[in-house]
């Protein structure tokens, strides 16, 4: 039998020894009453795990089912460092220079440059085979037609009135290219190259009498 007093209202309680170490509630003021543990009980040592931020006992906890004890160590629970992505521009100096000079051109720019080289090659072959001038004229007309319809499509996407003007007024396509050069430089490049091919093809046909 032990005697305990409420620390707030001083009410006396006579309790059995089996209640030592427990926390009871006062019947008068409902304050918590801590019943002193037995003197022979050893205090429990607590350690703070810095990585986990939790209090654990000095003894090792029992391993979880299906998990190896080594995998439960705090040093294995640390987050893995993310691998840094390789810095841009790493590589050979020639590749970096190529990207710097031609990065803004894109694939279409190389296609346009290849067609320009084809135009020069066909003009060089015309003295050897005059009928190449006919093919040059036809290729130039096809490029003009394709580039023009491409401009019409871009104009219709922006405004139906602009698209209609490009369809019914061929010269307005050039005006629209000037107004929206950023969005129409690709078809405009085809039209200009086609125009050069057509003019040079006609001139070579007349010169060689094809």
What does the model show?
It contains 6 helices and 6 strands; from the N terminus they run ββββββαααααα. The chain starts with a strand and ends with a helix. It has a two-stranded antiparallel sheet with strand order 1-2. Strands 3-4 form a two-stranded antiparallel sheet. The protein has a two-stranded antiparallel sheet with strand order 5-6. Among the domains are: 1-38, no CATH class; 106-208, no CATH class. The longest helix has 28 residues, at 181-208. Helix 2 (106-125) runs parallel beside helix 6. Helices cover 49% and strands 10% of the residues. Mean pLDDT is 77; it is low at 44-58 and 66-72. With 210 residues, the protein is mostly helical.
